Amino acid sequence: MSVADSAMTRDVMRDIAKHPVDASELQVHVQHGVIYLNGRIGRIRGHFQDIDLCEELNLILRVLRHKPGIRDVCCDVEFVGLTAEQRASGHPQRFHSHR
């Protein structure tokens, strides 16, 4: 991985950390201006139990796609910790995105 890709990967991880999601099982790397997100995200315990993970991930992707130097964002993420109500309402279990 190039120095620029390593620096951008750290920057992307900081951007994700600003959102109320548990991204501890999310792998992030940048290669030649393309961000790759793979793994799982969930809710942070405590005050953020009612957030919509899909909506929050869309916000994250929007921020990442507008970063200078980013050409594309590829996302294959599974949502964990959905409530029974969300599962019953048809909330997606996985999110795939490629601009």
Would you tell me which CATH topology applies? Alpha-Beta Plaits
How big is the Rg? 14 Å
CATH class: Alpha Beta
Broad structural category:
alpha+beta
What is the residue-averaged pLDDT?
A: 84
Quaternary structure annotation: single chain
Beta content comes to: 25-35%
The shape, in one word, is globular
Order of SSEs: HEEHEHE
How many structural units, i.e. domains? 1
What are the low-pLDDT stretches, counting only 5+ consecutive residues below 50?
A: none
Helix count from the secondary structure assignment: 3
Examine the secondary-structure arrangement and name the CATH architecture.
2-Layer Sandwich
Q: Could you give the order of strands across the largest sheet? A: 1-2-3-4
Describe the largest sheet.
4 strands, mixed
Gap from first CA to last CA: 22 Å
Word description of this protein:
The two termini are 22 Å apart. The chain is 33% helix and 34% strand. The chain has a single domain, classed as Alpha-Beta Plaits (2-Layer Sandwich). A 4-stranded mixed beta sheet has the order 1-2-3-4, covered by helices on one side. With 99 residues, it is of the alpha+beta class. The chain contains 3 helices and 4 strands. It has helices spanning 3-17, 53-65, 84-88; strands at residues 21-31, 34-43, 72-79, 94-98.
Topology overview:
Layout lengths: L2 H15 L3 E11 L2 E10 L9 H13 L6 E8 L4 H5 L5 E5 L1
Parallel strand pairs: 2-3
Antiparallel strand pairs: 1-2, 3-4
